[in-house]
Amino acid sequence: FSSYQHFLLIVWEYCSTERGILQVxxxxxxxxxxxxxxxIKYAIMKFRNPKGExxxxxxxxxxxxxxxxxxxxxxxxxxxxxxxxxxRFYKDLAFGTGGLRGIMGAGSNRMNKxxxxxxxxxxxxxxxxxxxxxxxxxxxxxxxxxxxxxxxxVAAGIFASxxxxxxxYEMLVPVPVLSFTTAFLGCTCGV
Length: 191
Description:
Shape: elongated
Strand content: 5-15%
Number of strands: 5
Helix content: 40-55%
Largest sheet: 3 strands, parallel
Structural class: mainly alpha
């Protein structure tokens, strides 16, 4: 990630307190060399309600996403229909029984590198908590669906930045091959 704003999107939903977010950012700073904790703390506090929960309107989310990268900014800036903006940001893409599924595009309610990254980081946090002090190994594979290889590489990068040992296939493989690989290599998780 090239700026703290990209990383905040992923961290926000998976840290229950401001202190938890700052602890994660201090740990990750080792990898990304962040030196802007005061700016990050301000950004976190800005979107908290009186109960301490992070809340943003769809329009605030839209404005935040405009600061990410040029490709995302260009896609979102080209939208003229307010209903389309609302549809992209009124909720976060839900993880269902089939995983993350949704329309491709920029927005918190779309499939993109940020929503995949956010879900991946949430899984990484869970694995770190559940397997504290253990070596965590993750096997990743992808199939022929749109952007599957790209999203697998995004997830692999996030897992690797968390210190996990990552095994990523370099070719399309069916799900049963991933299941076998996860068990065969003794991985903690398969994605």
